[in-house]
Amino acid sequence: MAPQDKKPTGKARDRAAAAYAADQAAKRRRRQFVIGGIVVVVILAAIGIGIAVQHSNSQSNSAAANGPLVFPSGTVSDGLAVQYGSSAAKTTLTIYEDFRCPYCKQAESMFGPIYTADAQAGKIKVLYHIVNLIDRNDGGTGSIQSGSAAGCAQDVGNAKFKAYHDVLYANQPEESDDAYASTGTLISLAKQVPGLDSASFEACVNSGKYQPWVKKNYDALSTQEGGSVSTPDYLINGQSFELTTQPAATQEANFTNALNKAIAAAG
């Protein structure tokens, strides 16, 4: 008969438990070290990919911005402006704007419905000049990319431009968020305008075809303002309409009165 195993004493059990705990702790540390190393490698790889993508996008945008100057279909004023409204209208509202500019969005929210109604009624024509001021001040490429995309929308049709123009303002990101630098974002927003998105529109947006046009508009505004550029810039028959810090209702009334006065004077 085989001898029976002796039961371990309390001290032996304690030593065995301590040894087991120490072994498990060592294994956990080794696993954590390996997992931590993998996480660091993954993070570094992601950072590297992000930097590479940003560098690639930057190079692509730079190449497009310095490409040949071409104008969207149907533009006026030496090709620099997109016109909305009848050419027969005697009163002209000129707007210099940037889709990344928060003050431009504020002005558009106040004055857009007013001037749009007048343009649709044949009382005025609107000349849109898209510039890239925020890119120059804050960095990024969202201004020039969105401006170029708006030019691509004009190629599809004037009504598509106006609708896309309004969509870009309705979805404007925070000034510090350069979301409009992404052509994917700009193409996705175009889907909100029926009949705008197509293979040719997407190719136009992705190519940055009209970035030099946006730059040219900025240069024109800089010359007009003596080198000190600000947006938005509204002119009624060439006369500046100043935005103020007054309540929106007051500014809307002032804008309406200024337009009506110009329309009446033009006969």
UniProtKB/TrEMBL annotation:
Q: Which GO terms describe its molecular function?
A: oxidoreductase activity
- UniProt KW keywords: Disulfide bond, Membrane, Oxidoreductase, Redox-active center, Signal, Transmembrane, Transmembrane helix
Recorded coiled-coil stretches: none
Does the keyword Oxidoreductase belong to this entry?
yes
Q: Which residues cross the membrane?
A: 33-53
Name the InterPro entries on file.
Thioredoxin-like_fold (IPR012336), Thioredoxin-like_sf (IPR036249)
The UniProt record lists the keyword Membrane: yes
Q: Where is the Thioredoxin-like fold domain?
A: 83-249
Enumerate the Gene3D superfamilies for this protein.
Answer: Glutaredoxin (3.40.30.10)
Q: Which family is it part of? A: Belongs to the thioredoxin family. DsbA subfamily.
Q: What is this protein called?
A: Thioredoxin domain-containing protein
Record the organism: Actinospica durhamensis
